[in-house]
Design brief:
The protein is of the alpha+beta class. The chain has helices at 15-28, 76-88, and strands at residues 4-12, 33-37, 42-47, 50-56, 65-73, 93-97, 103-108, 114-119.
Length: 129
């Protein structure tokens, strides 16, 4: 099984303003940043093979912080194996098929942090530069 950390999603007040901040910070650190808009409420910053998602908080004045973190694999069999393991341990998950051909499992840890395990075809990964 071959999973890797793909992204961390942060709840923010203003995705555009946050994207500008992170682009400036990462460029100072010498890291390549690729910005990609995912609808009007989410900005993705590609960062050396992984990404940071900046998600507009759903409610004004609501929490900011970590929304979820996601792991990906480019092998659909890995996702099926994980489902077997979760079922065997009686761990609840939600399965979602996406329009782009990817598929995700959403799992909550004991503290209610959400973990996303996803199958994504290799050509969907944000590549390192």
């Amino acid at each position: 099984m071959s999973y890797r950390l793909n992204h961390i999603a942060l709840c923010v007040k203003n995705p555009e303003k946050s994207a500008e901040f992170y682009e400036g910070l990462f460029s100072v650190l010498g890291l390549y940043v690729e910005r990609r808009s995912v609808g009007e409420n989410i900005m993705m910053l590609g960062l050396n093979g992984t990404s940071i998602g900046l998600k507009r908080s759903a409610h004004s004045g609501s929490r900011e912080g970590v929304d979820h973190f996601g792991f990906t694999t480019d092998n659909p069999a890995d996702l099926e194996y994980l489902i077997e393991q979760l079922n065997g341990k009686n761990i609840h998950y939600e399965r979602k098929k996406h329009r782009d051909g990817s598929e995700s499992l959403f799992i909550r840890d004991p503290d209610e942090y959400m973990i996303q395990a996803a199958y994504m075809p290799q050509d969907m990964f944000i590549e390192e530069k």
